[in-house]
């Protein structure tokens, strides 16, 4: 049994931290900006909550976090009440936040300086993946640190792999989001075309989902997309726009051309303008079905 901390109990972090207790049986202390949510988690899973990241991280072997963006990471990690102030020598900080490669490299350098390990480990699989312990985890860091962290991360992973040095996990998550954005736009156009052509969409999906067009998004989102219903599930448009912004900013640095991604990001801006900030990312269909 390891002594663990989990910082950030959003729709992803709450169930992820739960797996550490329920499946792993570890000693888990959580921190959340809203103390009531941390107290609720502790009551539900039999763990503990702490009033600051520093106190949550105290004497822990691993400290996991999943917060909003680069600024949120810095607010949780640095400062008098930050996690780094409570961590012991040899402990490992694992960041599950989808953030920039810049912050990942910054954290790795700061952790190395203080005698801690670090892994940037953004996840893919959405809320359902977190709840079912079936996330894809793409990691950046050194091999020895990753090897120590992996048995714990496997408690909520379907696949957990080291891609390369610090920052590689975040860069891989950018690849993931670029691919998903393009896929969802293509799927939206295909489904809208099928509907306007008068086809039975369920039968169409039954056939094409068994061939080269198959995707997770097709199999899990086609029905909601066809019904133009996007509330209460999945990955929010606001979050996708944040992620695509990170992708576009990184592309400026490495010279990658992302013309379709830039266009789809603007489509998501239109979805936000229609009141869809918290709709699922498959809501690109809304722009086609209700024109």
Tell me what you see in this structure.
The protein is α/β, with parallel strands linked by helices. The protein folds into 2 domains: 163 residues, 3-Layer(aba) Sandwich (Rossmann fold); 119 residues, N-(1-d-carboxylethyl)-l-norvaline Dehydrogenase, domain 2, CATH 1.10.1040. The chain has 13 helices and 9 strands. The chain has a 6-stranded parallel sheet with strand order 3-2-1-4-5-6, sandwiched between helices. The chain has a 3-stranded mixed sheet with strand order 7-8-9. Strand 2, helix 2 and strand 3 form a beta-alpha-beta unit. Helix 8 crosses helix 12 and helix 11 packs antiparallel against helix 12. The longest helix is centred in the middle third of the chain and has 29 residues. The radius of gyration is 20 Å and the shape is globular. The N and C termini lie far apart (56 Å).
């Amino acid at each position: 049994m390891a002594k663990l901390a989990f910082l950030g109990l959003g729709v992803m972090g709450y169930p992820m931290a739960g797996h550490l207790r329920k499946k792993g049986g570890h000693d888990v202390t959580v921190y959340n900006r809203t103390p009531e949510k941390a107290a609720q988690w502790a009551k539900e899973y039999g763990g503990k909550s702490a009033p600051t990241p520093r106190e949550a991280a105290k004497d822990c072997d691993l400290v996991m976090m999943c917060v909003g963006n680069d600024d949120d990471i810095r607010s949780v990690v640095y400062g008098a009440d930050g996690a780094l102030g409570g961590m012991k020598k040899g402990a490992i900080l694992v960041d599950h936040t989808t953030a920039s490669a810049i912050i990942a490299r910054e954290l790795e350098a700061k952790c190395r300086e203080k005698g801690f390990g670090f892994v940037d480990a953004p996840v893919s699989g959405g809320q359902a993946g977190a709840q079912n312990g079936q996330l894809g985890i793409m990691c950046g860091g050194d091999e020895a640190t990753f090897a120590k962290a992996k048995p714990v991360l496997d408690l909520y992973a379907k696949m957990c792999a080291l891609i390369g040095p610090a920052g590689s996990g975040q860069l891989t998550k950018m690849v993931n989001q670029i691919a998903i954005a393009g896929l969802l736009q293509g799927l939206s156009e295909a489904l809208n075309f099928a509907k306007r052509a008068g086809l039975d969409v369920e039968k169409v999906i039954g056939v094409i989902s068994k061939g080269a067009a198959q995707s997770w998004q097709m199999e899990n989102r086609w029905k909601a997309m066809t019904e133009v219903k996007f509330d209460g599930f999945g990955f929010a448009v606001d979050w996708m726009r944040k992620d695509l912004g990170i992708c576009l900013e990184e592309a400026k640095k490495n010279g990658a051309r992302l013309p379709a991604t830039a266009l789809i990001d603007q489509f998501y801006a239109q979805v936000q303008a229609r009141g869809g900030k918290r709709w699922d990312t498959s809501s690109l269909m809304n722009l086609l079905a209700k024109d």
